[in-house]
Amino acid sequence: VGIIQEQHPDRCRLFMQWKQMDWPILVDALNLYGVSAVPITYAIDEAGVVRAVNPKPAELEAFLASPAREPGPPPRVSRPDLAKLKPAECAASAVEWGAYADALFLWGGDGRLGEAIDAYERALRLAPGDGPTEFRLGVAFRRRHDSAARETGDFQAAARHWAAALESDPNQYVWRRRIQQFGPRLDKPYPFLIGSRTRGWRCGPGARRPRRW
Amino acid sequence: VIRNRLRFALLAAALCGALPLSLKAEEVPVRVGQPFPSLVLPSLADESPLSIEQFRGRRVLLHQFASW
Q: B40, B42, B50: which is closest to A109 by C-alpha?
């Protein structure tokens, strides 16, 4: 089984076809698992318990040779009811708005990306500067930029929020890689690591390339 | 010498203090001996809801990767 950290599932579909791999894959475009680098491999037993992380061949053999555990029945999963997830206007927290935005992005289709963006923006107003929310808002803007619902400024907004996310956690390699692939071209040194967000890193017409050392 | 030691101690403290910054991402904790965190995500095949929990009863080799 695989979990992919990709902006678009299409790209991975081509990759799987090319490599002739046909295992089930979960698409984690929003990086909900919060991994900061890939690849990571886990050996998971019949009861869903992690037995090894990045197992070496000997550990993998021991895992496969160990006695089977009694599993519980596998649960059935379904799409969440988006209407039920919508937080109450007055009492909602940043976590609730963030979870609602994630669900809208994952299950609402391109037609509800605008609502997902609004919900992420509300979460950010309640928890300004939260890195994962900034990253996910960037993903949502970039996804809308690639859809029929594209609005002027979506690409620039994605770049702005991704830059803010990376500024909060410069070592998040999964985020950085996403920006390199789907944001404006980044030239080393990354300006947001050595200066303010406003300096040097712009995109769109009249964009200036960041200064080189 | 004392001044140098003090500088070294301050530098070490600063580095120790800086370390947690690199662990700031809100990572879903995955620990050996604990259940793998179950999130429902769209499947690559048909975008239907899929979760690691659905493979309960089978041994799973789970690979987090990207096609970069």
A: B42
* Structure tokens, A85: 């997830």
Strands B60-65 and A2-4 come out as parallel
CB contact under 8 A, A43 and B25: no
CA pair distance A82, A121, nearest whole angstrom: 18
A155-203 pLDDT, tens digit per residue, is 999 999 999 999 999 999 999 999 988 987 655 555 555 554 444 444 4
Cα separation of A161 and A37, whole Å? 20
Dihedral in degrees, nearest 10, Cα atoms A34, A39, A43, A49: 0
What separation in angstroms does the CA of B21 have from each of A107, A128, A178, B32?
32, 17, 20, 24
ipTM field: 0.81
SS3 A207: coil
CA dist A104 and A128 (Å) reads 21
Contacts of A38 in chain B (CB under 8 A): 64-66
Chain B positions in Cβ-Cβ contact with residue A53 (cut-off 8 Å): 30, 32
**Which residue in A201, A187, A106, A101 sits closest to A156, CA to CA?**
A201
